[in-house]
Amino acid sequence: MGFTKPYTYVNDTVLSATDHASNEDKLRSYVNQEIEDTDVDTDTIVGESIATPRLVSSVQTADFVSKTLQGVSKLRLPQEYSWFTSTTKSDNQISTTVEDYQSLTDTGSEVVITKNNTKVMITFYAKAFGQTNSTVTRSPGNGRWDNRFLLIYEKSGILTEYTGTSTYVFELYTGVVPTPGAPGGAAVDAGAGGTAGGHRSIMITRMLTLDAGRYKFSVAVNAKVEKGNINCQSFTIETFHV
Amino acid sequence: MGRISNQYFGEGQAPTAPQLNAVYDSVAGDDVEDVNLDTEWAQREHFSSSNSIVNLYTFDYDGVVNWTTTSTAFTTIENVASTPSKVTPNYSSHSDVVIRVHASGLVAVVDLDTDDGDGSLAEIDHNTYAFRLLMSLNSSGTPSTVDIANCTYSFTPKGAYTTEATGTQLKINYVTFCFSGLYTLPAGNVIDAIELQACVGLTNNEINIQHNHIQVIIVEN
Which of the residues B20, B30, B35, B174 would you substitute to probe the A interface, choosing the one with the greatest number of A C-beta atoms within 10 Å? Predict the structure, then answer.
């Protein structure tokens, strides 16, 4: 867009301070290429107008104008398992009533929300493996072999669990020999253990509306096996700002 | 950037109109580009807090009531009567829109009518069940639907298409499902609803869905 001065000087006409200032202002704005109302109205804002993200690798955060992205994504890295175990529950290991949710390594992030009613999107993907218990094995039955994973957060010392995010991996039990083709054959489920029950892809997606505060998100497990492994491939929290 | 001529006036000198006009006229004939010189000027505070670029919608059923289907026709999941797994954005697109969708949930106990088939192409449906996110559009008064994302799972550890011809009933229960998708939509459409649907490949095979979730993110400038 070309420059058009707001006021044209005319000989023998008294120059008002306002007219002169309008020319000066317009020229300054034009030459400095400042943002004017018309720029916005005519959609002349271009990509480089918007601030680039701040990347804070120490806390795994990318802060865009539109949103903040936190968490880990290791989809292209070799598998790197961390452990979960139920030894902390002692002889309550396979209890169906005693719960001991332990946060898992690399499956979480701390989020600071500055405005009430801010929406966040959480995605989680991991490969989990429940090993065969050394002493107490599958015989106790239903509900004693499910390692249950949940999305949780801690805010001001209080834990909030999202039971609607439950996902499972079971004790790896190789004692079941399925009968091919036989109706009513073995099922690989929470109660029965079984080969494929010990290896699971576990996924969580959740959109939450949060009030201002500091939230420590993680995925936790109520383990019922002595040894288990989890490889968190991706855990991201997107906080939407605009 | 072009150079701008300037005027220098002595003390007490009355400038003429041409002298005053000259500076501005020289700019008018210059070639300053119509772009903003400053980069990265737009910070978060410059964006409207009431007219968002991003619109977000979610549905959550967090309970343990089973929704059962044995049908090969996609049906909307409905664990609670009259509360289907569905979001209703009622969003009108003003320009090109990017729609991002996610869905996840828990498949509880499954059942096979006979077994998982012989692994051939013809019997893939014996060992499959599927999910999709179906978007309903109302554009210019002509309703239409879009399969915006979908995924398929198997009932048993055996592949749906495999050289293992012996059927099995070794069903995998308590499996998490999760899928996502992107879709671009032009201006002039109304996104009425996006719903989560499921079906089985073979009639009388059975799946039971417990908790399930939809997330929809609509981005428009």
Answer: B174
